[in-house]
Amino acid sequence: WSRQQASGSLASVLVEQIEAFDGFFAQYIPSLITGTFLPIVFALVVLPVDWVAGLLLLITAPLIPVFMALVGWGAEAASRRHLEAFSRLSGFFADRIRGLSTFKLYGQAENEAKRVVEASETLRDKTMSVLRIAFLSSATLEFFAALGVAGTALYIGLTYLDFINLRGDSILTLQAGMFCLLMAPEVYNPLRQFAAHYHDRANARAAVAEIHDLFQSLPTELDIKIISGHSGQATEQHASSPANTNTDIALRAEDLTISIPGNEKPLIKELSFSLRKGQVAAIMGDSGIGKTSLLETLAGLRPALKGKIFLAESPLEQWPTALLRQQLTLIGQHPYVQTGSIADNLRLAAPEADEKALQNAANLAAMQDFLEELPDGLETHLETRGYGLSGGQLQRVALARLFLREPQVILLDEPTANLDPETRDRILENLLYFAKDRTLLIVTHDPVVAAKADVVWRLSNQSLITLDKTTLSKEESR
To answer: What is the pLDDT of residues 314-344, one digit of tens each?
Structure first.
């Protein structure tokens, strides 16, 4: 799941947007409580001393939050736009830093720098929108607070000068007048504190929306059980498969068009094909022509520009994520490896797998060759990104995870690229036996691997061309 998220956006959510809750709970909630009760209490204290001054304070104080709410009606939406722009800039900047050497290599560093500047300008505009609302809210508070204090002072001054007399026979003493004048600002001080932290509420609500949007696709415990193939009764009760059991077609694409985000030119255009259950297919083609993008689109990891994908003759979008991952597996060129033992990484596919199941999967993936050389075998600790194992060894770890699962459709992206011929042949034999009753689609540059497939395609000119297996070696050497 995390590999599908932009690293910068994920970091923004986990750091900056989580911190937005500190202002909400530590500042906004206390100021809301004091701003609700203290002005009323202070006004009621003034009321017995002078009912006119007390009534004036009671009337003007509630007007402040009402007009603040009207002025700040769009504060939450503005805050959310600001957080989205901030998250976008974080992800954009982190991705550009990671690929800086590539940009320099292809002479695109200046263009990408301009795009970073454009993203930062967008963030500046969103920030100013939030500040504009904050200043308007503060101005509203100060206006009504000034009216309340000035009104109280004007009333007391005119009463002392005998220009007005609303007290009847009762005389406003100096002590009472001074008390009312001193209490008037205190009535509005809690409201000032409330206004100062009012934007924390908008920030927190916007952060909640952003966090919800990001993490709503996080797999649940039930999803993990389904993906791992240990669903139990819960799966039967809650996870209904949309698969059509009356069809022999396992995977089908219809008028599929794929492009790279930000590039209007399609990599693949109006592609249609179908694979039956038990069929093995291979896709060959030049590097960078779109083979990996095709596999990722078939797996539902990237949207298609146009067209439909059907798994068991049901549209891919109708499949719940957990069931989709149970039925369809994609192993890319750079398999995910977490910090922990090799056994822990194998159990990502089957958390309940015992030692015997792990050893069997390791044997099928030809892992014993290097496990015997490791000090702790399957319990050998791996660092981040599998540091300590070679590319071919990491690929075998990923294949071993495949043997622990029961997918019906298997998508492999150059699974033997980093393997020697002997290891390749052993794994290929086990893989074909494992996929005997399943559907297997392999992207490869190796004619030996492609020759094992029932059908071989070459991706060229945005479409798939069927190759004659008898001339496969000649085609591949061209």
So the answer is: 888 888 877 888 889 898 888 878 778 888 8
